[in-house]
Design brief:
Helices cover 69% and strands 0% of the residues. It is mainly alpha-helical.
Length: 342
């Protein structure tokens, strides 16, 4: 009886593996080489493209097309040459950098710039940390109902207009307000914070805190919601108390958001609240309340010097762009992404 022996399977060699891998790579590279044509992409993404067309049109019409009007900063623009604004621009003489030289020699411009920078520093130091602190406080509350109620109360003033905000502060801190009436009942007269030019910048910051701190709270709470509870549990097991967990777990989770908002805030350093200041300008005078935005408005709209106002606005925009780039570069040095990556 013949015995049939079965040969064991041959082990795969390196050559076989190389052949198999090579054939797979060549197939994948062949598929990648063919790619997807722009017609296929257009047919595939036509719905998304149609959805973005209205947004692109609005941006072009209201954001980019008006940039062409900055040419009046280099002209002696006269809007009364023609009823058509484009025709008036074409028939206005070019004066080069004359408007910018006038701006450098104007003391009122430097006073407005000084008020703007001082107000920006005050708001950066007193307003920017408030949403962070309130978000950490609300996040530490255990009961969900208390957290939701606190967040709703703090966020509600964000929907108020500046007219209503100024009215509320007038009724509280004005000469005929609630606090003044209480002090008069106790023999103290002359209380009126709304007309005190010395504390006007701090009053503006207090109004911003009351109105917009709730918006910042939502942004920071959204960042805190992405923190894994396991990190807090691991820190607690390592012996970290409540403050140590906040310092080593919570604040590092907020660093990217803080860096992003700080870069955007620095970019708006020369924009410190036009409507808010304009409503209270007469109460304290132009010396304490004049900022670049109100200076451009009074120069261009009230006095009709459109070319000079355009020159100031153009410099303000260019400086804002430079501040964003510088702040974003600083965020990269700190290891954060900022507005865009490197």
């Amino acid at each position: 009886m013949a015995l049939h022996t079965q040969r064991p399977p041959r082990a795969a060699t390196a050559e076989d593996t190389a052949d198999t891998t090579g054939s797979g790579d060549s197939a994948d590279s062949g598929k990648a080489g063919r790619g997807v044509t722009w017609r296929i992409r257009l047919r595939r993404d036509r719905t998304l493209i149609l959805m973005t067309v209205p947004v692109i049109v609005l941006l072009l019409v209201f954001n980019y097309l008006p940039l062409l009007g900055n040419v009046v900063a280099f002209q002696d623009y006269n809007p009364y040459v023609s009823t058509n604004g484009v025709t008036a621009i074409l028939h206005s003489p070019m004066v080069g950098l004359e408007q910018f030289q006038k701006m450098v020699e104007d003391s009122d411009f430097w006073d407005a710039l000084q008020n703007t920078l001082v107000l920006f520093v005050i708001q950066l130091l007193l307003f920017f940390p408030v949403p962070i602190a309130l978000a950490l406080l609300i996040n530490s509350v255990v009961r969900p109902r208390v957290r939701a109620l606190s967040q709703a109360i703090l966020y509600l003033p964000h929907f108020f207009s500046w007219v209503l905000v100024v009215t509320v502060f007038q009724q509280m801190f004005g000469g005929a307000g609630l606090i003044a009436q209480l002090l008069q009942d106790h023999g103290v007269d002359g209380f009126d914070l709304m007309t005190d030019a010395g504390i006007f910048k701090y009053l503006l910051t207090a109004q911003m805190v009351w109105k917009d701190a709730g918006w910042g709270i939502i942004v920071f709470l959204a960042a805190l919601a992405s923190v894994s509870p396991e990190l807090y549990e691991a820190a607690a097991m390592d012996g970290a108390n409540r403050w140590r967990r906040m310092w080593h777990v919570t604040l590092p989770a907020l660093r990217p958001v803080i860096a992003l908002l700080l870069v955007l805030r620095v970019g708006d350093a020369l924009t410190v609240g036009f409507e808010q200041i304009l409503l209270q300008r007469k109460a304290v005078g132009a010396g304490a309340s004049e900022v670049l935005d109100t200076y451009v408005w009074s120069t261009g709209i009230q006095h009709g010097d459109f070319s000079y106002a355009a020159a100031v606005g153009l410099v303000k925009g260019v400086v804002g762009i430079c501040l964003v780039l510088a702040a974003n570069k600083f965020a990269h040095l700190l290891g954060e992404q900022g507005v865009y990556k490197k």
